[in-house]
Fold:
Amino acid sequence: MRASQVIYDRAGASIAEVDASEFNWDKIFEGADWFHTTGITPALSDKAAALTEAALKAAKERGITTSIDLNYRKKLWSKEKAQSVMTELCKYVDVCIGNEEDAETTLGFKAAHSDITKGELNLDGYKDVIRQMKEKFGFKYIASSLRESYSASDNGWSALVSDGNDFYHTRKYDVRIVDRVGSGDSFASGLIYGLVTGMSMADAAEFGVAASALKHTIPGDLNHATLSDVKTLMKGDASGRVQR
Structure:
């Protein structure tokens, strides 16, 4: 029943005070294929928001694929400020990642008949939201992690991904939570890994969900699961048998 509490101690941090003019984008993006950011960075300060926009623009100008995880954090900024900033940033994004709550708070899209506190999901509602997002921003891919809250300790975990035409709902994992912090980042990084390495949209989503399901079993922010761990789970082996 007890919720985790996060404290942000970011005031005065260098990333919050930096000016976008200090960055050499040609050097930074040399040899890069993908640039990823999240909604947390622009929430830190107006300068950080300007830096995030400058980075996305610079990446797009160089033909680099861009992605963003919406990641709304109410302790950092208001819903109104988030929508104002994130709506502008998403104009330069190819792949948009976020859960149902983030899509509503940062972009104003809401899935009908879903309540994350009750653990209720309506896939048709999400599909409608994805269609709206595709129409407004033209994203190449849109992915949403889907969390069903049975209790604070037990969740259902899956994802929905779409290119605006086809929709794919991944396998659902019933996870006993050791630490859920970082699970969204694990999904995003897994999805990106899949797409960068040439997986289909569906396989990339399955890889991301498997990686993030494993993250729920690992304490701390980082996912220490190996590539083979994720691929084993993707194949359906969730037995947890000791490998000797």
User: Anything to note?
Assistant: Strands lie at 34-38, 65-69, 95-97, 141-149, 154-162, 167-169, 173-176. The chain has a mean pLDDT of 92.
